[in-house]
Design a protein that fits this description.
With 175 residues, the chain is an alpha+beta fold. Helix content is 32%, strand content 34%. The protein has one domain: Aminopeptidase. The chain starts with 5 loop residues before the first strand and ends with a strand.
């Protein structure tokens, strides 16, 4: 499956590539400020990021994930990533994202994820989206609310390294 490039006012959203590994590692997957509430652990090397990108590519090919890199139109710099992944056990699409620390609080994440959700709804017929965020990370919840998601319930999630976070869960059903 080939992902279509999506453009917004300030961003170009394109498929992530294994060749992005070094840049992504240096920009956000190695930054504990960015990874603090993520289910994955902070990457220790660009090889960790490369392995993650290989899994992203594999999920593209299976048609179970739409993950995009977020590039600034003004500079062409890759500043974050995100998209949606199918969760068979819940028959829904789980939204996720992360963005380099230097680009927090500029509205880029909501702009990007909103465009991805709009594309997936209109072009792929996906109607049911879910997302969650750690209670201690309310900024992520604001992104969800900005794109039109509604709070659904409280719960928790467990990270790959065993950390557990109390979480807020959100839903969005497209018309």
């Amino acid at each position: 499956m080939k992902l279509q490039v999506i453009e917004t006012k300030r961003l170009i959203l394109r498929p992530l590539e294994v060749t992005d590994a070094e840049h992504i590692f240096n920009t956000w997957t190695s930054d504990p400020r960015v990874t603090e509430f993520m289910t994955y652990t902070t990457h220790k090397s660009a090889e960790d990021t490369k392995e993650w990108l290989k899994s992203v590519q594999n999920n593209y090919e299976k048609g179970v994930s739409y993950d995009y890199g977020f590039l600034l139109k003004s500079t062409g710099k890759l500043i974050g990533s995100g998209g949606a992944e199918y969760r068979k056990e819940r028959d829904c699409w789980m939204i996720g994202y992360n963005i380099a620390y230097d680009y927090w609080y500029h509205g880029y994440t909501a702009e990007a994820i909103g465009a991805v959700v709009d594309y997936l709804s209109k072009e792929k017929g996906i109607r049911h989206f879910v997302a969650d965020h750690a209670v201690d990370n309310p900024n992520s919840g604001r992104v969800m609310e900005k794109i039109g998601m509604k709070f659904d319930h409280m719960g928790s999630y467990t990270c790959h390294d065993g950390r557990v976070f109390e979480a807020k869960y959100y839903i969005m059903d497209m018309q």
